[in-house]
Amino acid sequence: MTPTPKAGALDVGFSLQLGTLNVQAAVTSEPGETIAIVGPNGAGKSTVLRSIAGLVGIDAGHIRMDGTPFDEPTTSTWVHPENRPVSVVFQDHRLFPHLSAQDNVAFALRANGLGRKAARAEALTLLEQARLTSAHASRRPSELSGGQAQRVALARAFATGADALLLDEPLAAIDKASQVELRRVIGELTSTVLLVTHNPLDARLLADSIVVMEDGAVAQSGAADDVSNAPSGAWAAQFLGQNLIEGTADGTSVTALNGFEFTTATTDAGPVVVNFAPSAITLSSELPGGSARNAWATSVTRLVAEADRVRVQLGDPVPCWATVTAGSVDRLGLEVGSPVTASLKATELRVAPR
Amino acid sequence: MTAPRIPSRRPPVEVLVLGGLGLGLAGLPMLGLLIDVPWSRITSVVQSTIVTDALRVSAVVSIAAMVVVVVLGTPLAWIISQMQDRARRVVRAIVLLPMVLPPVVGGTALLATLGRQSLLGGWLHAAFGITLPFTTAGAVIAASFVSMPFFVVTVEAAIRQSDADFAEAAATLGAGQRRVFSQITLPLIAPAIGAGAALAWARALGEFGATITFNGSLGGRTQTLPLATYESIASGAQDEALVLSFVLLSISLVVLLTLRDRWITR
Q1: Cβ of B170 and A96 within 8 Å?
Q2: 0.95 surpassed by pTM
Q3: What is the ipTM of this complex?
């Protein structure tokens, strides 16, 4: 059992003019919650993290954690970054180039009051938790791979004992295999986590709630499932509207967690996520022939009419969304509770390790 | 497929002539000096009192000035790098002024500020019995005055280039300003501190105008290598002047070679 954290409740609501971009942010978190901040480039996602960390000041509003204000222009409150119980993992990891991996982590421990010897010993333990060996510990950042460096950076940020970890695209610059590994390490964090990401997979697999930012403002926010099921706006729909189903791959088949078996066009092994677009699903009244090898009988649980199409939510055995034309809905007589057959070509499935 | 080798082109003739003259202006005097150095008598000249005294005074003054410049200049460079734009321009202008100021003006200014008759100098003498003009300590001050800007300009640029991202990261990890500066910024700018110190030391070693104005040219106390060289020329001891110049030229070459990665190779 992981203990429930008591600290790390963020309360952020501010506006900030940054060049031509006006950032208006609103983010709140429960202690221990993982929040994904998603949005297109230049939407102000990193600015939210930087303002919480104290690397940039806000123009109006407030940044508070557990009731303590960090930055509040109306009361002239400002807490220096080193005195805020938050720490940051940057996309470019920013490991100190003149220090070994171990000393990078020890730096954070010493800055928070630990003695030299104790800090170096504790640093080794933390690196182990980030799945790094003592051989990695003695290396300089330039001698580590991108994925290893990012794990050191995560261990270093974690070492501060911060109540909130701010991760700025930590998985963006590293290879696929390292992403899987690092995603697991992030998933094990018990503190509050704010994760800026471009990857729908990260948002869906790691986040309890999702904040969508566009043009400096929050376009949508809420529980991860709610936002994923009903993304508003074109960008969010494309980003979050994909169907993701977790399972285990064995050759060209993937068994979902609930036992449903997909046939895939690629060969994989181990824990994976199956990813397919809602538009890839064909709905019909009977089992189709042809090359659609994945077909199943299900029922409609929800219908959402949009401008030029209808989003259809399907129930077990494969909970997912399909998009069809209004004509198809009429032709098939779809309404909530209707039985229907869904099919999906194997080539429409993308399989990624998780 | 490899691209065809592009033959290098000869610049126009007038460019060659003028550029060649420029190179000659830099190189020929060095050659002339080397030719005229009385090589046969060099050991005996180097061992003469005026030369050994000047070597000792120069070593003491230039090294002491370098230490002063590093100890005061590093914090100063850090402060300047952290300042807001407008204040930074003002402070930087003050610090850089001695770089373009005629050294004799610097010497006069030092005399006006620290001379026995001046307010500050008079008080130092009355309260502590400290006299700076015409002393080795005064020569150190004059040399520090003229060489500090070379150091500060080098180190400040290095801080502003390398510092920001890592210092930010260190602060988010809970490190206060002192820890960030001593454990992150300082190690990262160590090469620039070395280069700036070498530059300042070379400038201090060659210092002439401010020193002679503020401290005169007292053998064994304030007479550095450049001052001794000038005295030798003025008193007709050409061989001495040539040997002293040769010593200074050799030191300058060593400094240049030391700094070649920063200035020449790139």
Answers
A1: yes
A2: no
A3: 0.79
